[in-house]
């Protein structure tokens, strides 16, 4: 079997550096941030360093610690304290944090969340502690009406004044299932399409990738095309419950799985490590349907109650997610959430809204997925493997698929619907992993036929790429590359393309 290269394709349509200018943020909490009470000797630091400082200050403050968030504008960590003695507060300030006094303790906020779980586990609702407002932010989508809406509001009122707030979401909470050009699985009733989040190394040393758990639950074997032979097999999957993640192993042990995200226009970001999210930090999401978008983390340890896809009267509750104001649409599921400095943060799970009007999107924390599965990022572990070759792939695949992709990334997205797939979108990249399959390589299938498309891929624009058309999706191009795949979507049909993700040159 030829050696395959799997490119983490997350296809995109915009360069990372331009994201802040081109992509508006979606809706954030309706409550305004409370101004810190004292600047103290606050340090100016990056978001990833803020996470480390938060852990340090938590130990100093003990029970007085009531959450923290990153003030992105001032580049400072703001720490909430409740009834802390002057000595520990002074220590926290000396450590470099901005300290402010708040009314609700961590224990009280967690108790409020437990009450919501017991009394208001309603499809279409979510809640997470918002340290900026020192409250539990409860969100209800448009399906929560009548008696359910009254029940939710009554529960929130019962928590007491100043403990929680409720806001409406214009969309519907769902896993992003629509199709993606990435990885495919044939199941009873049709095909499932999903996406790859990040390439990793399994605990036994074999190449693998992380994707959404609802994909792994829906199907066991994954290919780079709707009719292709399986190239990767689900090893572990969690959904619903304590997370939404799957570990999928490549069937070919020679697969090289670079740790890299393609952000479009020939741009890539090496993924050097996994990092915990910090409320307030800026993040980027790549998806096969909508490409590259940015926003901020708005909540941690979020609980989301999705309408069950298997039981019309059931609820699929997922806990421990990251809440953001980054937009996403069907087909973006499973896509990578990362920071500009190359830290892997999350895997797209689901949400509401779209990239025209904004919305909420929830992500599975990568650190939790790695811990649960025993995997490490790339070939070199959590920290640095990134590279791994990334590059390579990059190119490699990149293009590839790209072409393939053609287009459209969008398509990608889609995931098929399968439900499972949901995530698909991301998938795209997913595919990537997949194995080469990448479309490109894969058979090129890429639709493009071109086999190579790769180049084509690039094609990017060309579109042609791959010849053909693949559709060139253009964007593909963009995405190209690597991920391009995604983009692929579109096109071209190419199913493969999706593959793209997997891309790879063989």
Task: Give helix % range.
Answer: 10-25%
State the end-to-end distance: 10 Å
Report the total helices.
Answer: 15
Shape: globular
Mean pLDDT: 71
Q: Give a short account of the largest sheet.
A: 6 strands, antiparallel, barrel
Question: pLDDT below 50 for ≥5 consecutive residues: which ranges?
Answer: 1-33, 177-181, 379-506
Count of β-strands? 24
Coarse structural class: alpha+beta
Going across the major beta sheet, what is the strand order?
18-19-20-23-22-21
Taking Cα atoms only, what radius of gyration do you get, to the nearest Å? Answer: 22 Å
Assess the beta-strand content as a share of residues.
25-35%
Question: Topology of this structure?
Answer:
Layout: H1 19-22, H2 47-61, E1 65-71, E2 76-81, H3 86-94, E3 98-101, H4 106-119, E4 125-130, E5 135-140, H5 146-158, E6 164-168, E7 174-175, E8 183-187, E9 190-194, E10 198-201, E11 207-211, H6 213-218, E12 221-222, E13 232-238, E14 245-250, E15 260-264, E16 267-270, E17 273-274, E18 282-287, E19 291-307, E20 315-324, E21 336-338, E22 343-354, E23 358-365, H7 366-373, E24 376-377, H8 390-405, H9 410-413, H10 427-435, H11 454-458, H12 466-469, H13 475-479, H14 481-488, H15 495-499
Parallel strand pairs: 2-3, 5-6, 17-22
Antiparallel strand pairs: 1-2, 4-5, 4-19, 7-22, 8-9, 10-11, 10-24, 11-14, 12-13, 13-14, 15-16, 18-19, 18-21, 19-20, 20-23, 21-22, 22-23
Helix pairs in contact: 8-14, 10-14
């Amino acid at each position: 079997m030829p050696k395959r290269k799997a490119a983490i394709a997350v296809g995109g349509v915009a360069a990372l550096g331009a994201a802040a200018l081109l992509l508006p943020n979606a809706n954030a909490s309706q409550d305004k941030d409370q101004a810190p009470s004292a600047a103290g000797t606050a340090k100016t630091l990056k978001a990833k360093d803020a996470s480390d400082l938060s852990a340090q200050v938590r130990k100093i403050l003990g029970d007085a610690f009531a959450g923290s968030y990153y003030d992105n504008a001032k580049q400072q960590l703001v720490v909430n304290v409740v009834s802390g003695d002057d000595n520990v507060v002074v220590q926290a300030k000396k450590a470099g944090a901005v300290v402010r006094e708040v009314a609700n303790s961590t224990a009280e906020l967690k108790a409020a969340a437990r009450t919501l779980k017991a009394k208001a586990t309603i499809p279409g609702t979510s809640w997470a502690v918002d340290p900026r407002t020192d409250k539990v932010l409860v969100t209800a989508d448009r399906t929560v009406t009548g008696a359910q809406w009254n029940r939710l509001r009554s529960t929130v009122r019962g928590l007491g004044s100043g403990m929680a707030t409720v806001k409406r979401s214009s969309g519907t909470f769902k896993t992003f299932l629509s199709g993606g050009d990435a990885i495919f699985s044939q199941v009873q009733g049709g095909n499932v399409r999903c996406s790859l989040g990040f390439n990793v190394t399994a605990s036994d040393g074999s190449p693998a990738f992380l994707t959404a758990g609802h994909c792994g639950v829906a199907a066991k074997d994954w290919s780079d095309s709707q009719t292709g032979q399986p190239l990767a097999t689900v090893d572990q999957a969690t959904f619903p419950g304590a997370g939404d993640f799957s570990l999928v192993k490549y069937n070919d042990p020679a697969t090289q799985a670079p740790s890299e995200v393609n952000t479009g226009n020939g741009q890539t970001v090496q993924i050097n490590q996994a990092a915990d999210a910090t409320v307030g930090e800026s993040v980027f999401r790549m998806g096969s349907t909508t490409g590259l978008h940015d926003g901020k983390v708005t909540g941690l340890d979020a609980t989301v109650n999705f309408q069950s896809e298997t039981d019309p009267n059931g609820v699929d509750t997922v806990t421990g997610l990251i809440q953001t104001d980054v937009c996403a649409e069907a087909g973006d599921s499973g896509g990578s959430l990362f920071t500009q400095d190359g830290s892997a943060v999350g895997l797209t799970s689901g949400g509401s809204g779209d990239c025209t009007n904004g919305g909420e999107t929830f992500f599975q924390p990568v650190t939790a997925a790695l811990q649960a599965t025993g995997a490490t990022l790339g070939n070199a572990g959590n920290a640095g493997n990134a590279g791994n070759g990334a590059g390579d792939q990059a190119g490699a695949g990149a293009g590839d698929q790209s072409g393939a992709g053609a287009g459209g990334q969008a398509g990608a997205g889609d995931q098929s619907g399968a439900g499972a797939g949901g995530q698909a979108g991301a998938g795209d990249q997913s595919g990537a992993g997949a194995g080469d399959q990448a479309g490109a390589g894969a058979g090129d299938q890429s639709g493009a036929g071109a086999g190579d498309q790769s180049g084509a891929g690039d094609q990017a624009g060309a579109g042609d790429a791959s010849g053909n058309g693949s559709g060139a999706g253009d964007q593909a191009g963009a995405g190209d590359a690597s991920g391009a795949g995604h983009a692929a979507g579109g096109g071209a049909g190419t199913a493969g393309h999706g593959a793209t993700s997997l891309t790879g040159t063989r």
